[in-house]
Amino acid sequence: MVTDQFILSKFGFLGESFLNELHANSVMANIKAKTEIIREGQKNKYVPFLLKGSIKVFSLNDGRELIYYYIKPNDSCLMTFSSIFTDYTSRIYAVAEEESEVMLIPVSVMHQWLIRFPEINRVFYYEYDKRFSDVMNMVNDAVFHRLDKRVLNYIKQQISATGNNPLKVTHREIANSLGTSREVVSRVLKKIENEGEIIQTKEGIKIPVNESLRPV
Q1: What are phi and psi of 202, to 5 degrees?
Q2: Which long-range contacts (CB under 8 A, 24 or more apart) does 32-38 make?
Q3: Which of 162, 157, 175, 170 is nearest to 202 (CA)?
Q4: According to the model, what pLDDT value does residue 135 have?
Q5: Which candidate, 128, 143, 188, 202, has a CA 20 to 30 Å from the CA of 20?
Q6: Could you give the CA distance from residue 14 to residue 110 in angstroms, rounded to a whole number?
Q7: Cut 0.90: pTM above it
Q8: Are 162 and 111 in contact (CB under 8 A)?
Q9: What pLDDT, on the 0 to 100 scale, is given for residue 31?
C-alpha cells in the first residue's frame, strides 16, 4: 500500500505506460540499520528511492565523515542519480541510519527511460533542488556556526529524519559526523544540556517537547 502511494505520488504524472514498466523493473529491498549501501569508487547498479527509514550520504577524508545530506522517505539520492550521466561510478558513501525499505531501479533502465520518458527529468530537478539546499545548509553550518550550534543542529536533523526522540546515538558517532573528537562532543553536549536545549538519558538524547526541531 505504501509502495503504491509512493509510486503514484512520485511518478503518476508520467502515465500508465510508464507505471507498468516501473512495476516490471523495480526491485524492493529491506536494508538493516548501519548497513553500507554504496561506497566511493563502486559502480552504481541501481537508483534508490527511499520508502521508509533514513540514509546518510557522505564522503570520507582521513577517516572523518563529511555529511552531505540525509535521504528521507519519498526521496532519492541525487549523487547516485547524477552518476548515470557519467560513468556510473559513486562519488559518495551511503549508509542506512536505521532499518530502511527502498525501491531500486536499475541504472541501465533509468538511462533508457530518460530518453523514452524525458519528463522524468522533473524528478531529477526536484531532487537537485532539495539536495542543493541541504548542501548549502551544511556549508553554512560548518563555516558560520560554533560547534555547539552544529551539534544541536545535528541532533535535531537526526530526530527529524528518524522520528526518534530520544535519539539513540553515541558521542563518538556525533564526533565522526562533525569532524571533531568524542571528548569535545561530550563537553559540548553537557554545555547545551545545562542550557536546557537537550536532555541526555539512558534511552538517548532528547529534544524537550517545547523546543523546535528546526535547525538554529
Answers
A1: -65, -25
A2: 32/96, 32/99, 33/96, 33/97, 33/98, 33/99, 33/100, 34/95, 34/96, 34/97, 35/95, 35/96, 36/93, 36/94, 36/95, 37/94, 37/95, 37/96, 38/80, 38/90, 38/92, 38/93, 38/94
A3: 170
A4: 73
A5: 128
A6: 14
A7: no
A8: no
A9: 94
**Which runs of consecutive H residues, i.e. helices, occur in 145-181?**
147-162, 171-178
8 A C-beta contact, residue 103 and residue 27: yes
Counting every residue written for the chain, the total comes to 216
Question: pLDDT per residue over 23-49, tens digit each?
Answer: 999 999 999 998 999 999 898 889 889
Q: Which position has the grid cell 553515541?
A: 170
Q: Return the pLDDT at 29.
A: 93
Hey, what amino acid is at 73? P
| Single-letter amino acid code for the residue at 76 | S
Q: What is the pLDDT of residues 138-182, one digit of tens each?
A: 676 665 568 888 888 889 888 887 788 889 988 988 888 787 888
Asked if 107 and 66 touch (Cβ cutoff 8 Å), the reply is no
> How large is the average pLDDT for residues 83-103?
85
For residues 49 and 76, is the Cβ–Cβ distance under 8 A? yes
Do 13 and 68 touch, CB atoms closer than 8 A?
no
